[in-house]
Amino acid sequence: MRQVMLGNEAVARGLLENGCTFTYAYPGTPSSEILPAFLKQAKSENIAVHGHWSVNEKIALESAFTASITGMRSAAIMKQVGLNVAADAFLSSAYLGVTGGFVVVSTDDPGPNSSQTEQDSRMFAMLAKVPVFDPATPEEAAKFTGLALKLSEELELPVLLRPTATLCHARQNLNLNKISPSQRKPEFIRQPQRWAATPKNRFAQHQALNQKLLKLAADPRFDFSRSTDPDKPQTPYAIIASGCAWSLTADLLNDLPENQAEQFTLYKVDLPYPLHRGARNHLLDKYEKIMVIEESMPVIEYQIGNQERVCGRTDGTIPDAGALTPEIIAAALDSFRKKLPLKLLNDITLPPGKRPSLCPGCPHRSSFFALKKALPKGIYAGDIGCYTLGINLGALDTCLCMGASITQAGSFYQTFAKSGEPIPPIAAIIGDSTFFHSGIPALVNARWEGSRFVLLLLDNSTTAMTGNQPTPAAGTRADGTQGPGLALETLIKGCGIDKITVVDPYDQEKMITTLKEAQTYTTSAEGGIAVVIARRGCLMIAAERRLLPNLKVTIAETECTGCGYCTKAFECPALVSYDADGEKRVMIDPITCTGCGQCVVTCPQEAIKLG
Amino acid sequence: MTDCKLIIAGLGGQGVVFLSRLIAQAALIAGDDFITYESHGMAMRGGSVSSQVKIGKHYSPLIGHNTADILLVLAPGEYARNRHFLKPGGTALVNSDILLENLAPENIVDATTLAVNQNLPKAVNLVFSGWASEHPAFPFNFSQMQQAAEMMAATPAIKTANLKALEVGRSKILQIR
Questions:
Q1: Fewest beta carbons less than 10 Å away: which of A550, B58, B107, B175?
Q2: How far off is chain A from B51, nearest CA to CA, in Å?
Q3: Rounded to an integer, what distance in angstroms lies between the CA atom of residue A56 and that of residue A386?
Q4: Chain A residues closer than 8 Å to B65 by CB
């Protein structure tokens, strides 16, 4: 049967077609669609599975690993920076090994387009000594997911699958295989010397792991020297590529004039680590010069380890940062053929695009506006989510990684306080999902250390940026069943915070007074950390849109001076600048306006009116 | 076998991704292979976005400069940002309420006004594609687009609205002819 699928849906299909019954994930672009697709496809085919949005990636990986050591096939799914969060569990699991097939899916974001780094998960696999598959198309993503589960079981090792964003969000018509329910029953065989190995046993496990990798590097199934037409005559140039870098190169070679294309032989690596040794040696014997095209780091190139004969990311034939494009590969092919340094054609200057912005009516915008009013000279320690866009509003100064806002706010306080310097107002800004992910230990730590700051918790009751996945607060689970909810207030109180206020961010006046009070509390003798929970649901959720006040907002053209304060300081997409007979004015776009009425207070001329 | 490379550009929230899926669905109906690429994540919050659709036997969804056969643009400002993808002799079709530099007026439609006038403000993308599908360079015909829009509608009400929007776009071009 042929069906249209997103790369991520194909990964989910690969899991189901190969008897994977336990899947854990934390959302993050470009991985977020895999778990919902896994649950949806299982449901439509009446297959019993368990899939869950874990609170963070470390917990997802630990959960899936544990299912695997009872013999069940399992998967942990995350984006590349999530693998950093899960690193401890990931590296340790390679030593312990597994029993049921265990695949870790870590999706990469070359560019980066929606991440803080463009790291290569294949490099992480090398660090962890875990085999890694690099699929090139959605069809291959489904196939390699199955191969990864089977190889994992065969070697009793975790196996990584590394799709890149181009593949995750590629859509293709592909062949599906049948999903058949797993007949397995979980069984935990007590082997404390294995599952709770002490350092002495860990050394033995490390040696065993090395043996498995050596065996795999000699496995004929992964001999990539046979990945091309055996009858093709010897060509002057050889290219080795994997994943989406391979598919880009293959398409480009197909489009080249025949007299140019026939000079290249393209080899495809399915398993970039451990690299097949025989294939490596064979190609080094066969070709004078080899170019490696891979995304984003020189994983294959380092393993070939011959800098005289092999070029690519290490010598600048391919740029060492950014996503690969057809233009870059075309230029690289050219420089490789002509033995000249890479010359990228940068003759195109594009007009600036429209930057992403918070949605019209987004409650975060109101919170940021109030924050700037209440703590005008503050340091705003930000975090990861939609609200990172607070940077557009001048209401976000830092963004390091998930959960860092609270730690950074605390550390700003300590740095000024312990240096005996005046302490500026400090605010940590974090969303509800990020708070659950890694904000809680940070808050416990900051209180323990005696830090003082305002914690503005933007509670829109969802993980908005990645497509509105539920959080533990409401208790709704990935499969739609209802679990126990957990009130943020209770949780924060349990962290030892006494000053907690819940405000509707649409009540701008109350937001400002509450934030000012919170700031005063941080400087009072008995004070400490003051938490302000700005609570209003995300408007991407239909039920929340129904709670909008539906106000009619207009701008009096005669009163608007075109100062642009509203469009800069509030930046609502529904506030549109236009030219009125040579004078700049702002109007409300009736299509995008949600009728929240929040912009009314922003106009210094009071030209934005209700009704 | 059709072989065609399309870029679809616009702003997050305009339905760029939906339009690329609609065209992919039409390819499926026509029995063609295809691979597409969609923008997700941070870019979706109202910023510049584009989708790429390659019909025919291709491995990668990415389209190089000067190689696209068709450029479909939902926001006028995005035309200049994506024009370089178009191959010499390729076709650009743009939703715009103003004339654009380097573009013939017959390649421009004000689908936004058409959609708003018909009380379909959320279906600008469908009105636009109804109009575009009548262009000789477009890889699929109107009836294939209709079938695709029917198949992609989740409810009967959406189906009716989708088909109406496509028809509004097509009637615009038929009027001119």
A1: B175
A2: 10
A3: 17
A4: 326-327, 348
Contact A171 B44 (CB under 8 A): no
> Measured between beta carbons, which residues in chain A are less than 8 angstroms from residue B127?
none
Who among B12, B35, B81 is closest to A172 (CB)?
Answer: B35
Q: Which residue of A has its CA nearest to B32?
A: A173
Question: Is A334 near chain B, with CB under 8 Å?
Answer: no
Nearest to B137 by CA among B92, B95, B177: B92
Cross-chain residue pair B46–A573, CB shorter than 8 Å:
yes
CB contact under 8 A, B47 and A389: no
Provide, rounded to the nearest whole percent, the portion of chain A with pLDDT above 90: 91
Residues A42 and A170 in one domain: yes
Count of beta carbons in the 10 Å neighbourhood of residue A489: 17
Assess whether pLDDT exceeds 60 at residue B177.
no
Query: Complex ipTM above 0.95?
Result: no
Distance, in angstroms, between A206 CA and closest chain B CA?
38
Tokens of A91: 């590296």
> Domain count of chain A?
4
User: Taking CB atoms and an 8 Å limit, are A358 and B45 in contact across chains?
Assistant: yes
Tokens of A448: 């323990």
Encode pLDDT of B38-95 as tens digits: 876 555 567 888 999 999 999 999 999 999 999 999 999 999 999 999 999 999 999 9
In this structure, how many other beta carbons lie within 10 angstroms of the beta carbon of residue B105?
8
CATH numbers and ranges of domains, chain B: 4-176 (3.40.920.10)
CB A119 within 8 Å of CB A80: yes
Tens of pLDDT, residue by residue over A177-193, are: 999 889 999 999 999 99
Are A514 and A563 members of one domain? no
Give the model's pLDDT for residue A39: 98
Give how far B170 is from chain A: nearest CA, Å. Answer: 23
Only one residue has tokens 């490099």, namely A123
pLDDT at B46: 74
Q: What is the pLDDT of residue A310?
A: 94
Examine the domain organization and report whether A206 and A242 are in the same domain: no
Q: Given an 8 Å threshold on Cβ–Cβ distance, is B62 in contact with A248?
A: yes
Residues A122 and A150 in one domain: yes
Percentage of chain B exceeding pLDDT 90: 84
Q: Can you give the residue range of the structural domain that contains A382?
A: 363-545
Euclidean distance between CA atoms A390 and A396, whole angstroms: 5
Exposed/middle/buried for A541, CB within 10 Å: 0-12, 13-18, 19+?
Answer: middle
| pLDDT range class, residue B175, cuts 50, 70, 90 | low
Question: Is A522 within the bounds of a domain?
Answer: yes
Residue A252 sits at the chain B interface (C-beta within 8 Å): yes
Place A339 in a pLDDT band, splitting at 50, 70 and 90: confident
Cβ pair B64:A330 closer than 8 A:
yes
